[in-house]
Amino acid sequence: MKNEIDASNDAVHASNSAQSIEHIRHSLAHLLATATVSLYPDTLLTIGPAVENGFYYDMDFTAPLKDADLPVIEQKMRDILKEWTIASKKGSAPDAAHFLHKEVSVDEARAFFANNPYKLELIEDINAKGEKITLYTVGSGTAHEFTDLCRGGHADDMSTIDQNSFTITRVAGAYWRGDEKNKMLTRVYGLAFSTKDELKAYINQQEEAKKRDHRKLGKELKLFTISDLVGSGLPMFQPKGAHLRRTIEDYLWELHQDYGYERVWTPHLAKADLYVASGHGMHYLADMFSVHGGTSKEDFYVKPMSCPHHIQIFADNQFSYRDMPVRYFEAATVYRDEKTGQLGGLTRVRSITQDDGHLFCRMSQLTEEASIVVKIIKKFFSTMGMLDGYKVRLSLRDDNKETWLGTDEVWEIAEKGLIEVCKNENLPYFEGKGEAAFYGPKLDFMFKDAIGREHQLSTIQYDFNLPERFDLSYINEKGEKERPIMLHRAISGSIERFMAIMIEHFAGAFPVWMSPVQVKVVPIGERQFDFAHEVFATLKKADIRVEVDLSGDSLGKKIRNAKTDKIPYTLVIGDKEIENKTVTIESRTGNEGAVSVEDFIARIVSETKNRSL
Question: What is the pTM for the complete model shown?
Fold first, then answer.
């Protein structure tokens, strides 16, 4: 086969670092397949793509693969990569470290993969679509020459890959082509980065992430509960979690009320007619919950989003241009029938509370209103300590006009307005052509947590579609009806997912203003109980969230318990503190000495008011 392969370079080259690492990961999937077949010759290969942070290959083994086999496969990968590199550099097989491709006929492909039913099925699919069939070979001229059915996108030179920049991590089951009716295959996963240091940093990050897992901390800190009797994806918040949730919601509202937003409330149910009118019924029906009235016998849908409801509130008013813009805010819980297998903790739920905001404004007001939302986003995430290193995707339409709703003129004004917002607000933005929603361009904000993981959270979306579908209007200066533009915006995304991110971002050790319990009062023994109660009552009166430990545990255990519960401050009370009317502070950083109760209250009040981190 090698003599028939076109010796030209790989047709797909990396145009930037992101593409380059993706091509490296894809190439390592080929290397994984090469090593595996070398060790287990009867293995049937299927597909092996690059994925986020690494790669995998789905294979059909004659005997089960064990975890102990993974280091053997990984070492074989390194041995083969070294073989290809040496052969290429010494000239004994100059093309060994490069991917060579050849376009073949259907019959040639069938003949080459005659003993692999998985590849034969792929070949028939490619042929049915009228696409070219290409084979890629690496290791040409060596003992481990390997050819695979592939579309391309590989590293330019395998010898440049750091041999310590990848590792094989785990195996999992995977149905052939994702269909549970098909055979279960073995999926072998690997991690891959540009350098050994990047791989090590990622592995360390993952280890730290396990310690911070919000499901683990949520249970330990008694923040939320998920009950099989209630249902998957329907979390319930215990008192401490409910406080954390309310604190976030209250802060979001505080940031909006000075900008002219008004709170609204909408029910959890609506008739199907509402979602037919909005168009959501055509796109989201499979993800919606339906309800049949036992008495009324009427059919309803559980609310999957709030925008159609807010539109009905707007439509019930006679607004003029003087009233514009109209701004609504609601912490609204919506419900979506997510697949059970995709649910997890608070990050993927079926009851989703959005800090939902919808604005109705004139085209001339869009840029200013979007700028206001950007200011709110910046303030919110600065308070959370997540503003460093954030980035923004400016999602624009592509050149296929048939997929976009609205006139070229409206789109041009809207897109230029968002570009102006990005520049005026000094946003670290990049353009995503073709990423716009069909109803308008948008900004998507990505923020990094304390251990460097990126989360897409805030969004600002222009909408020309819904005002048209619901025939919304206001009266302009000429006394004529004019169509408003709708602006959807969310700051935290969903409250549940944001809480999960915050639990992990702070590792459960929330800043004072967010912490469900700010202070634990710890008397050394029974002699100090009365004064401990007095301090507790004084703090409580000052609206400080405080608990008192009157257990018979030792002082050391009481302090350890408070630290395990991640309470910001523990106040130790002994005879000396009673005598001097003071408390001794044990903070997260250590013993801070004795202070008066009044001074301590002033400190907590200040930290809470300023939302100190």
Answer: 0.84
